[in-house]
Amino acid sequence: MPDYYFFLSYARGDDRDSVKQFFNDLSAEVRSYAGLPPTSTVGFLDVEMQVGESWARTLMSALGICRTFVALISPRYLISEPCGREWAIFSDRLSRLEDGDPSVDPPPLIPLLWLPPPRLPAAIEARQYLNHGMPEAYGRTGLRQIIRLTRYRDDYLEMLARLAQQIVEVATSGRPVPTHPNPLPFEQVHSAFHETGAAPAPAVSPADLVKFIVAAPSRADLAGQLLPGVDRDPRFYGELPEQWAPYRPHLDAPIADRARQVALEHQFHAMVTDLDGLREHLDSDEDTTDWIIVLLVDLWVTGLSRHRNALARFEEADDVAATSAAASVLVPAGHDDEQTNTYLSQLTATLSQVFGRRMSARLDSFRSVIISPQSFDADLGVVLERSRNRMFRTKTVQHQLPARSGQRPILRGP
């Protein structure tokens, strides 16, 4: 198990390239001050967004043993439940060291402004630290901008040196943060930034609401052949359609979980339903423009007549040309799914019988045969942002303004 001098916590979508640069630069400085070889692993950074049991164990292990916790605070960070869980896990460890006294110096929990948010939750306000010697732009534009602008290069290098010194001092002090293997699965840890028992309230704007409709078989649906003469491999499916996981074995988690996470990174409030939920949606008087609609479609689902009819009905009802409903279709098909690759032309032909208008028009709202989780993240991110922009153009959008909290808090770095 690596000896993690620091855990870098950040929100997905916050300029990953700059985050990785900061992580690499900080790791190099920590090695220097700790006198470690250049190849030593001193920090933990979850650079790939993964979900599932294996990923959760790795993440929880790193959170349970890391010596310091560096949080890159941004608006996305504050609405991210995974970031709130990471903060909560390390904060719980720290409370065992502090015995109720948060004045441990130097502090093992180090919040840094990445992109300055308009306000901070109580969990972070309780740890407002003064950033001595930081350039004036830090409080105004945040650390990300200091990394990107060459005129702050000297300030950035000085900050890295002092931060690395602080991390090494904490790591080698006589009062280490107690290790704490959390008994709860990561998904069950309560976020430090959200109220107990309640999800973060969605924004007033419909442009921030997305409904994912999973169009996939359940394992019970595989009893009949979805393609004549072919028995579909059941390992990609679960008891419910929402448990469809097209990227196994590379990514064990359902695609719906990953879609929710991508939506959160783009500051959407998301819900997930299956084709039965789509039928209820079509049969109700609900305004279809109240939510951004994204269908996650398995190529094999069109082999089920009931499901194929529901998709065809949706396609007929949706005004593809107007796009005011911002309905989009994504078709994941993992490159490790040999069966899908073998019958791809037949499956695509059947799919075109349902979504022929979208496919022939080569619309941006239709993304077919997405072969990797990374491509899925990128395609879904583009689809969500474009759908949001369409909603802004076609609907009257109102956002609730956040309450003012007085002077902007200043967080202490090194």
UniProtKB/TrEMBL annotation:
Gene3D superfamilies: Toll/interleukin-1 receptor homology (TIR) domain (3.40.50.10140). Residues 2-171 form the TIR domain. Pfam families: TIR_2. This is TIR domain-containing protein. It comes from Actinoplanes palleronii. The lineage of its organism: Bacteria, Bacillati, Actinomycetota, Actinomycetes, Micromonosporales.
